[in-house]
Amino acid sequence: MSAAPAQPPIVFGTDGWRARIGEDYTYENVRRCAQGVAEWAKAAGTTAKGVVIAYDRRFASEFFAQAAAEVLLAYDIHVAMSQTAVPTQMTSYEVVERGAACGIMITASHNPYPDNGFKVKSPSGAAASPDMLAVFEKTIRDNAGALPPTRSYAEALAAGKVEMYDPYPGYVEYTKRSLDLDRLKAADMRVLVEPMWGAGAGWISRMLAGGKIQITEIHQERNPFFGGVNPEPIAPNINETLGILAKGGYDLGLLLDGDADRAGAADEKGTFIHQLEVMGLLMYYMLEHRGLRQPVVSTINETSMVGRLGKLYDVPVLETPVGFKYVGPKMIETGAMMGGEESGGYGFGMHLPERDGIYADLLLLDLFMREREKGRWPVSAAVAHLHEIAGASFYLRTDVHVDKAVYPALKDRLLVELRAEAPAAIAGQKVVRTDALSTGDGFKFWTEDGSWLLVRFSGTEPLVRVYAEATSAAMRDEMLDQGARLVRGDGR
Predict the structure, then answer these.
(1) 3 burial type by CB count under 10 A (0-12 exposed, 13-18 middle, 19+ buried)
(2) Residue 441 exposure: Cα atoms within 13 Å on the Cβ side
(3) I need a surface site. Which of 5, 55, 183, 385 has the fewest CB within 10 A?
(4) What 3-state DSSP class applies to 365?
(5) pTM score over 0.85
(6) What does DSSP say about strands 17-20 and 115-121: parallel, antiparallel, or unpaired?
(7) What is the pLDDT of residues 450-466, one digit of tens each?
(8) pLDDT tens digits, residue range 428-441?
(9) Domains, the chain, with CATH or none
């Protein structure tokens, strides 16, 4: 093999590896990641099962996907490549349906538009486990001085070594196993769908076409700039959508992120239903309307409503670190009915143990239809009912951006300081418990009334995330302000 120049380390964070296109995210580094996958499959003895590859709508994603395929083909691994850009969860679905060794998804999810990324799905369809990721990273390190072997993608395609697939027909049938799409199509509702120019464009409207329900979908075209916002369905990125809803004419807004594995919603007034409320709504739906009683998996930064609903319905709630690489395996291990994380990712035992924003949005639609039948309508009334039984949840997250060069030093300093000098009070409330995250990347501070503040270092970007869930909006905002000051070091 020919020699290669020294490369920066590739580390898989909470949700794959992500980097700036043309800087660290290059064809060569994508091929290095693919070699990690190929060597893992070789060691596991599963190369004969093939690998599924798909990609999103980001800049050059289809060509990065082909670069990954070139390495797998050199290892004589059969490649199934998506015909077009598709939602991330379609790799999970295809891996499960085909019994493939694993899946590769080229996407940076909700990251800024200059980035791209590399995700891996395990044989179960869940996110690659920490053990799998460790193998990938070791392979990449061990082979840092040489270029991975490759085989021409064009020649392999012509020779029939690459199978092109369309996941849509099979996914629809798969969804019908656990959700009555005809019931949803018959709903007398007007729904606005916001895919944020991403890979989920057209999926919900197509799945619900031909019925009474009226679906209006915006921002369907491919736009790698994502309209100038991060394709994450939270304010201010979705302010245009919330403004449309506020003008009236719609019963509900359904939101997706750039690769459609995260879900979001807004009510008929254009009020954003935040991610933690969506988790509570989906859990309530599974318990109250579907009658399920299996465990629920929740990340450390998820809502306290999960615990209260668990007690109310006598259902175990299991907590994991942030990231579906922890949530998915725990769902499989415990037979959980659902799992969720703060960022808007939700997986379901009756569907896939991985985030699926399209499926989650369809479940929300089903929930609101059922609540309407019980007289809890419009959507805002159904959300209010959730809080009547699960408690208040005023939540917000802020991101403190840090220069890439100083990020490691800041992280090391704060992880020591926040442990040694934890705040005694937050927003005037006594801190009654401090939890160090098991992943070693942050701390969670609990107050007497059950409110909490979480300071956590991102595993995918040079920033510190500050989260707060409180019993009032004023307290939430004060907690967030104090958290940001803790990070900046300008006051406790």
Answers:
(1) exposed
(2) 20
(3) 5
(4) helix
(5) yes
(6) antiparallel
(7) 899 999 988 667 889 99
(8) 999 999 988 877 88
(9) 17-169 (3.40.120.10), 184-390 (3.40.120.10), 394-488 (3.30.310.50)
